[in-house]
Specification:
The chain is mainly α and 406 residues long. It contains 19 helices and no strands. It has helices at residues 4-23, 33-61, 73-92, 102-125, 131-140, 142-178, 189-211, 215-238, 240-245, 252-260, 268-278, 285-295, 297-306, 320-327, 331-341, 346-364, 370-377, 382-393, 397-405. The longest helix is centred in the middle third of the chain and has 37 residues, at 142-178. It is elongated and about 90 Å long.
Length: 406
């Protein structure tokens, strides 16, 4: 086949991407086993894609019909790929628990499909192994035709289900990060969650290979897969700092321990008390929140913190844990209070305080530029300041300045 070399190129791209994912090393503090395991799973998934390309390239080079592979071989490998890489993506989002049983179900279904088709072929061929007999078997066996239809429908539904899980998980992930971090480009959950959509695009192209019985469609799909794989690998490698920065929020007890251990001057006894406060017994949590809210202690502590002369809310890389330590409120109670009584997450609350400070500076020191103000109040840059200012105040800083000073 004249385009068979494209399969070999796609195979080499997948192999290089897989090796790239395995070979990259970070500094020891960042080279944690969890992230290394995620990269290994993703690398194994790319090697499976390389296997498909290598087999397809071999068949095309020797004059065999590659579309026959799409009846059995490709769907089974795709099934395993989906299982492995979906599990890795959930790990990347720190949300493995959302769909922990699906990978096993996918792998079991792939094994059942392989055994069923292999046994049916051996019965059909009476034990003889031949490509021509296999081709005839795939083309003419009614049982295999309907089995494949059911299997492909199952795979597509499984992919759809996994995609829904991952998209919902990414949205939950973004909300969770915003509940524990002030606005930071470096630890933005959106950048990490964007990899989910690249992942979905990768598998949509993979589905095209066996869902559309066309050699040319398969070649186009392989080309797109190769391009997506390169982008995907670069994203995963570049996201390692974000992965470690946003790891703690999904387990508050671990968050408290892991971050406080890196801080100096923290008393172990205080840490133990804080962790115990974060895990009240069943039915006790609401009582604690109600008690604190009713006598105003939490709100008094929060207001006192926000009115401090040193303006602690303008500090960069501010986290919920930092505020909890400074106000002597446990992280969980602080988060729940902000969400329940102020109706905002931690990120929005901090940004509101910062925007109020921006308004004061615009009026009292009108000669300051937005770049200077953004540095003074903890925003990453003037663009972030303007975007958040307009989101909270419904007008840009320049409009606000003209309106107030006119």
């Amino acid at each position: 086949m004249e385009f068979s070399f494209l399969y070999w190129i796609a195979a080499m791209v997948a192999i290089v991407v897989g090796v790239f994912l395995l070979a990259v090393r970070y500094e020891k503090p960042l080279n944690q086993k969890a992230y290394t395991s995620i990269r290994r799973l993703l690398a194994f998934g790319t090697f499976l894609d390389a296997l498909i390309c290598l087999v397809s390239g071999w068949c095309a080079t020797h004059g065999y019909d590659t579309t026959v592979l799409n009846q059995h071989f490709v769907p089974v490998i795709f099934n395993i790929q989906l299982s492995i890489m979906a599990y890795a993506m959930m790990g990347l989002l720190h949300l493995r628990y959302i769909d922990r049983f699906s990978p096993w179900l996918y792998n079991i279904s792939a094994i059942v499909a392989t055994i069923t088709i292999s046994a049916s072929y051996l019965i059909y061929s009476k034990g003889e192994i031949s490509w021509s007999i296999y081709t005839d078997f795939i083309a003419n066996s009614r049982f295999i035709f309907w089995f494949r239809v059911v299997y492909v429908v199952y795979i597509v539904l499984a992919f759809f289900r996994t995609s829904v899980h991952l998209v919902r998980a990414s949205h939950l992930y973004i909300r969770t990060v915003e509940n524990y971090f002030s606005e930071e480009e470096v630890i933005s959950g959106r950048r990490l969650a964007a990899s989910v959509y690249v992942f979905i695009g990768y598998f949509i192209c993979s589905i095209m290979i066996f869902a559309v019985p066309s050699v040319y469609v398969g070649l186009v799909a392989e080309f797109l897969i190769s391009c997506i794989l390169i982008v995907f690998a670069i994203m995963i490698i570049n996201l390692h700092n974000i992965y470690f920065s946003v790891y703690p929020p999904h387990n508050l007890a671990q968050m408290l321990l892991s971050i406080e251990e890196r801080k100096s001057g923290v008393v172990a006894k205080q840490r133990v008390v804080a962790v115990e406060e974060m895990e009240p017994e069943s039915g006790q949590k609401e009582e604690i929140v109600t008690t604190f809210a009713s006598n105003g202690k939490i709100e008094d502590l929060i207001v006192e913190w926000s009115l401090r002369k040193d303006k602690p809310f303008v500090r960069e890389s501010l986290t919920l844990l930092d505020v909890a330590e400074q106000t002597q409120i446990s992280p969980r109670l602080l988060s729940e209070f902000l969400n329940k009584h102020y109706k905002v997450n931690f990120c929005t609350w901090i940004n509101t305080l910062r925007v109020d400070e921006v308004k004061r500076l615009l009026v009292e020191q009108p000669k300051l530029s937005l770049a200077e103000i953004s540095t003074m109040v903890g925003f990453a840059d003037p663009a972030s300041l303007s975007r958040i200012f307009k989101k909270i105040s419904q007008e840009s800083p320049s409009v606000y300045k003209r309106r107030v000073l006119s």
